[in-house]
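Before the break, one more example. Copy the sequence into your notebook; we will annotate it together after we see the structure.
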Amino acid sequence: MSQTRLTLNGLRHYSCSGVPKPLPSVTSILSATQTEETRKKLNAWNLSNPGALEKAAERGTWIHSATENYIRGLRVEPPKEYLPYWEGMPEQLDELLENGRVLWIESPYNNPQWHSYVGSDGVGRLHYYDETTEQGYAGCPDLIYIDANGETVLADFKTSTSPYSLNFPKTNSNIPDNIKKALIGGVFKAKKTQLQLAAYSLAAEKCLGLKIDKTRIIVSTPLPDFKVQVFSFSKNQLDKHTKQWLEIVKNFYAKIDDKAKIN
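Here is what the structure looks like once it is written out:
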C-alpha cells in the first residue's frame, strides 16, 4: 500500500511510497492557508448551523460512493433524503462519459498498474512532491476519464444545498436576494474546487504520467432550477489555477517554517 494516514500538527498527512516525509492532504493545505476573515465566517456559520457540517460530509460521502458504483455498473438506490441530490446525475454521467473511457473513479479503473496508489482503506490517493523545494501534498481525485474527443479530463464531484457559480451576480439583476447570496457563496466554492482540481492534475501527471487536458466540477443540488451543474475549464484556465495552487503550497510551507523558527 502506498499511503499511511497520520495527523501532524492537527492536519491530515499521508506517508507516500518514495517520498522522504509525510505529505499534507490537499484539503489540509487549503484549510490552513485560508484567511482569518474566512476562518471567522466559517466558525460563525458552524455555530449558527450545528450539525450541518457533519450532514454535508455524510451527504458528500454518499454521492461519491453512488457515482463510483454507478460508473462501475452497480445498482444505486438513494435513500429518501439524498434522492433530490441524485436526480439527474445518472443522465449527466452518461452524457459526459459517452464514447469515452474511465481511467480512475476514486481509485484505478481497469488499470492494475496503478493499484500501488490504493491505500488499505480502499481509497486511491496520488501525490506530488518537488525534491528541490521539498514541498508536496497528497489527495484523492474523484474521476479521470478520456472523453469522446480523446481529451483527458479530471473531474471533482460536489454536493451543495445551493448552486455553484463562476461569476458574482450583478447588483442590479432581478435575481431574488436569497439566490443572489447563494451564488456569491457559490463563487468561492467554485474557486476552491478549481484549486483542488489543479492539485490533483499535477499529482496525476507525477504519479500516473497523465497529461490533463481539461478539468470539470460536477455539482449536484436539490434545487429544481439548478440540479446537476457542470463547469468545464480549458488547459489555459487549468494552467492559471495551477499557478495559484502552487503559490498556496509555497505559502503553506513558509508558515510551517516560520512556526518552526519560533519554536
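The chain has one domain: 3-262. The CA atoms of residues 220 and 228 lie 4 Å apart. Try to locate both features in your own notes.
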